[in-house]
Amino acid sequence: MPWTPADIHRLRRGFDSHTLPGTEFNHAAHIAVGAMYVSELGPEAALAHLQQAIPPYNESQGGQNTDTSGYHETLTRFWVERLAEFVAALPPELPPAERSLAAVEAFGARSKLHEQYYSFDVVNSLEARKGWIAPDKHPGPAQLTADGGSGAS
Length: 153
Description:
Layout: H1 5-17, H2 27-41, H3 43-60, H4 73-88, H5 96-107, H6 126-130, E1 142-144, E2 150-152
Antiparallel strand pairs: 1-2
Helix pairs in contact: 1-2, 1-5, 2-3, 2-4, 2-5, 3-4
């Protein structure tokens, strides 16, 4: 069943309050929440917020942020960049929840998209989990710099 704007707001509230069950925070929900932050805050502030918000959310759901699980810097930044590119191409008058729904439609079933951008297994790389590694196969038109600001690719 497709999500509604109300569903998107519920996901974001649950993420923010740490009440969204981890079992519901699948790839599509990650996209929905990320697209809301990108739409409302802009990519740099969205990235900064998610860098701070994801680890405690993981812990609130019984997870850990270790060398092999939990927060992943490269994937977080990768997805914020993809969502920023996508959201920027949408009509500016579209409300954030509608932008989020469009992002879910475009990316909700594409959890392996990073494999088109990286020639190595970024998911299992300790270096990629702990710090940003730029895509080496297809960098994309815009990337966030190491400090979170926009930079040329």
